[in-house]
Amino acid sequence: MKLIKTEEAVGHILCQDMTQIIADKSKGPRFKKGHVVTEKDVPVLLSMGKVNLYVWEMEPGMVHENDAAHRLAELCLGPGCVAAGEPSEGKIGINAACDGVLLVNSERLRAVNATDEVMVATRKGGFAVHEGDALAGTRVIPLVVREEVLAAAEAAAAGEKLLEVRPFSARTAAVIATGSEVASGLIEDAFTPVMEAKLAAFGIEVTCRATPGDEMDSVVAAIDGARAAGVDVVVCTGGMSVDPDDNTPGAIKRAGARIVTYGSPVLPGAMLLVGYFDEKGADGAVMRSVPVLGVPGCAMYNKATVLDLVLPRVAAGVPLAKADFVELGEGGLCLGCKPCTFPHCPFGR
């Protein structure tokens, strides 16, 4: 940095906050560190008693923090993401442009953050967000940064966007509540209303309901009926344990589902099943994959379970693989806090 006359400071960057005091009215920074001095700023600075200023010497190849913020933000702006206004003190936020599930390119995010003098902080991916929600913030650490630092961060992203908000696309669902006690009317079906409420949070309407009992053939027939109705998601509740009369996993498989996982490293919800019915065209190509969920009983009485970690992506049509469930193990232990604050808690985060 160097000391120069205020009249010669136009175009230079302030090295420190400039405090203005107005008697009996206010005292605070009129110009903040990093501000680029303009012609109209000069008389104001002089009236504040600032005859000389410490400014950064902008050498060739150096980039101001606000200009750098724009470039870092651009790395984040995948579909469904927008910049939250202009940079302030080198920081710029990223917001959701629509309701949906936040997807974070974790590998590229780690690579960018491994670059010295830059940072991108995001929310945890895989969770629902709403239009206008804050998703991320970016900045460079110093006031000015070398061009090659930004180039390295951009290279670390490898042409990929760090963030995306995938809109919710599923609109209809079937809920198949297994259990002979429900089918016979001995007890009221308490599971379906819970599923209806959870699905409705993502704009999904339950248009098909069935209570087929426990017999595998009956459960398979109910699943076939749901598929024939053309729903976007099939949810089977109960009968998910390893007890001999718990036939739901077998029925889902017999109905033709491609099983992604039966079991997850999450408590509560270890017995979750996730699969897909791949609907193929005449040429054998998959035209549509309908997710099917085998939901364990814990989802009926626990506010947050593995279902809540998976459902946002299912609702947005994000294909799930075994690796997605393996990753849930870290953070997959619910602490049973009272009251439950999910999703604003460590569970799944």
UniProtKB/TrEMBL annotation:
Domain MoaB/Mog: 174-316
Catalytic activity: adenylyl-molybdopterin + molybdate = Mo-molybdopterin + AMP + H(+)
Gene3D superfamilies given in the database record: MoaB/Mog-like domain (3.40.980.10)
Enzyme class: transferase
Cofactor annotation: Mg(2+)
Keyword tags: Magnesium, Metal-binding, Molybdenum, Molybdenum cofactor biosynthesis, Transferase
Record CDD domains: MoeA_like
SUPFAM superfamilies membership: Molybdenum cofactor biosynthesis proteins
EC numbers on record: 2.10.1.1
Keyword check for Transport: no
Family: Belongs to the MoeA family.
Its biological purpose: Catalyzes the insertion of molybdate into adenylated molybdopterin with the concomitant release of AMP.
Protein name: Molybdopterin molybdenumtransferase
